[in-house]
Write a structure and sequence with these properties.
Layout (H helix, E strand, L loop, with lengths): L5 E6 L2 E6 L10 H15 L6 E5 L4 E3 L4 H4 L7 H14 L5 E5 L2 E3 L1 H8 L2 E5 L3 E3 L13 H9 L1 H10 L2 E3 H6 L5 E3 L4 H13 L3 H16 L2 H14 L4 H12 L9
Helix pairs in contact: 1-3, 5-6, 9-10
Length: about 260
C-alpha cells in the first residue's frame, strides 16, 4: 500500500502506519488524515491483520493540524468537518490501535493519540492542546477525550493555559500507558501489538467494544453490552479451543472463528 503522506508496513499480523510529513513535523493535513483513514480501514477489513501501530518521527508524532490549510477556512467548510471526524474513524476501527509517540503530540496530534486504544510514549514525548493560543479550542475530541482520561481539573488546566506536559507527567495523570527510552519505542509497541495479535480475534474485538462502551455510556448500558458479548463468545470456536486447551494444559490455537 502506497500513500503520499504515510508509510504502511506489515510485520506478521501487525500493521504499522508511520506519519510521513517530517518537514512539517507531521502536521495533520487533510491529505494525511484521508490517507490514514483509508489505509487503516482497508487493513481493518483484512482478517490477517490483528493489531495496528500508529507512529511518527523521533522529533514529532504529529505537531498539530496544518494551520496553513485552516487559516482561511469558513465555519461550515466540508473538508474541515471531514478532517475533524477522522479521529472518530480511527477510534471505531475493530482492531486494537497502539499509538507509539515520540516528540511533539500537540493539538490534533494529541487528539489522534487519544483516539487510539493504547499509548506508549518515549521519554521525549510532549503532549498538549494549545489551540487557545490560536484563538480557538480543540475540535476533534481534545476537550472530551482528555477530560475522560485525566479528569476535569487537569483538562481545564491544559486546555485553558495551552501548556505542554512531558511524558512523565502524562503517565502520572493517566494519559499514557507506558514511558520508555526513545530507542526502544517501536520495539515496545511491537511487543505489545504481537501479544494482542496472538489472542483470539473475536474476543479481542468484543473486549475493545465493551471497554469503549464503558468509556462512553452509563454503567447499566455498559454492563448489559458486556454480558451480551460474553454470552456471544460461547458460540465461537476460539472460546471452546481456549478453554479446552486450558483443561488439556496445552497452548491454544486460535483461528478467529
Amino acid at each position: 500500500m502506497e500513500f503520499e503522506n504515510i508509510v504502511i508496513e506489515r510485520d506478521g499480523a501487525v500493521a504499522i502506519a508511520t506519519l510521513n510529513r517530517p518537514k512539517q513535523l507531521n502536521a495533520l493535513s487533510f491529505g494525511l488524515c484521508k490517507d490514514l483513514c483509508l489505509a487503516l480501514e482497508e487493513l481493518d477489513a483484512d482478517d490477517s491483520v490483528r493489531a495496528f501501530i500508529i507512529t511518527g518521527g523521533e522529533r514529532a508524532f504529529a505537531a498539530g493540524a496544518d494551520i496553513h490549510e485552516m487559516v482561511d477556512a469558513t465555519p461550515f467548510a466540508g473538508t474541515g468537518h471531514d478532517r475533524l471526524a477522522f479521529r472518530d474513524r480511527i477510534n471505531h476501527l475493530s482492531k486494537p490501535v497502539i499509538a507509539a509517540v515520540s516528540g511533539f503530540a500537540l493539538g490534533g496530534g494529541c487528539e489522534l493519540a487519544m483516539s487510539c486504544d493504547i499509548i506508549i510514549a518515549s521519554e521525549s514525548a510532549v503532549f498538549g492542546q494549545p489551540e487557545v493560543n490560536l484563538g480557538t479550542i480543540p475540535g476533534s475530541g481534545g476537550t472530551q477525550r482528555l477530560t475522560r482520561l485525566v479528569g476535569k481539573h487537569k483538562a481545564m488546566e491544559l486546555v485553558l493555559t495551552g501548556r505542554f506536559m512531558d511524558a512523565a507527567e502524562a503517565a502520572r495523570c493517566g494519559l499514557v500507558n507506558k514511558v520508555v527510552p526513545v530507542e526502544v519505542l517501536l520495539d515496545e509497541a511491537m511487543a505489545m501489538a504481537r501479544t494482542i495479535a496472538a489472542k483470539p480475534p473475536l474476543a479481542i474485538r468484543l473486549a475493545k467494544e465493551a471497554i469503549l462502551k464503558a468509556a462512553n455510556a452509563p454503567l447499566d448500558e455498559g454492563l448489559a453490552f458486556e454480558r451480551k458479548s460474553f454470552c456471544m463468545l460461547f458460540a465461537s470456536e476460539d472460546r471452546r479451543e481456549g478453554m479446552q486447551a486450558f483443561v488439556d494444559k496445552r497452548t491454544p490455537e486460535f483461528k478467529g472463528k
